[in-house]
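WARN no homologs supplied; continuing
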Amino acid sequence: MFHQTYQAIRAPELYGDQWFNSAPLSIRAAEGQNILLFFWNYTSPASLHMLTTIKEWFVDYTDLGLICIGVHTPEFPFAKQQRKVEEILRKHNIQFPIVADNERLIAEAYRITEFPAVVLIGGNGNIYDVVTHMFSISRLERSIQYLLRQSGFFGELPMLRSIEAEQSVLRHASELTTGYMHGSLGNSEGYSPELPAEYRDPRIYIEGKFYAHGIWRAERNAFHYAGEPNEGYLICYSDGENIDALIGSEQRTVVGIHVDDASMLLEQMNADVTRDAKGNTSILVGEPQILSIFRGVQQEQHAVKFIPLQPGITFYKFSFYKEHLSSDESQLIRNN
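OK structure emitted
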C-alpha cells in the first residue's frame, strides 16, 4: 500500500469534462465539509472491486458530513464515451456524483498515476491523505471518521469494515497492458509500433510478460490481431493466479481458449468461458469489456492461450489475481 499524508496542500479544483448524477461540484464551495475523491476507471477490475466499498461509504457517511465524488479517468479512448460510462453507472447502481476526467487534468493535478486511488480532503480544504494501489479499508475508514470528528461530528459512527472487505479489494495483484507504451511483450522481435508484424512463439515464458504468435499490430495501448483466422494467438503465463482480460472486437466473434495446448478443464474455466459439445473452450467478444477467463489452482504453472478466430480482435489488458490473500498481504492490512 502506498499513501502520503499532506500537511497544508490545498486541494486542486475539479475541472472535468462532464458530470454524472450531479451538477458540477466545487472543492472551494464545499469548504467546511470533508470530501472523498475516488479515482477509478471502469476497465480496471481493481477499481470495480473498490467501488463496492465506496458505494457503502456513500450510504453510511453522506448524512454525517462526507461528500463522495468519483473521478472517472479513462485508460483507453473508448472508455471516454458518455454512453459507456452511463451504462456502467446503471449496471453498478452508482448514485454518487461522478466527474469525467477524460484528459486526465484532475488526476495530474492530484498526482495520481495508479488506479484506483482515494484522496481525502479535510474541511479546511487541504489534502489530508492519498492512498493508491493496495488499500487498507479499515485504515481509510478510520481516517474518514477522524476527519468527521475533527469537523465537529460527535454522534455515533458506523462500525469499521471487516477483513473480508480488505480481501475483496486486495485480491487483484497486477495488471499487464499490451500496447507498445508499456513494454509488456516478451517476444524477442519486440514491438513494431503501429505496423503489422510477424511474431513467433518462443515457448519459454516468464511472469509479467505476454507472448504473441502470428501477425499482430502493436498500438499505443493495445495489441490488435491482423492475421488469418486460427493462425495466431497470445499467451499469458499464470503461476496460480486467476486471469481476467479486457478484449474488444469490431464485430461479435469468438476467441478460443487453451491451457497448456489443450481445452480448459472445468475447474479452470472462469465465468465468461463456455464449452461446446466437442469440449472446445472459448469466450464471446464484442464491445470492449473485462472477461473472466482462467481460474488458477493453488501454485500450479500454466500457459493460457487466446486464439482469435478472425482478425479485428483487440487485446488491451490482462489482470492477474488470487482468490485468497497471501500471509504477507494479510499481515499488511492487519498492520494498517
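The longest strand covers residues 210-218.
OK
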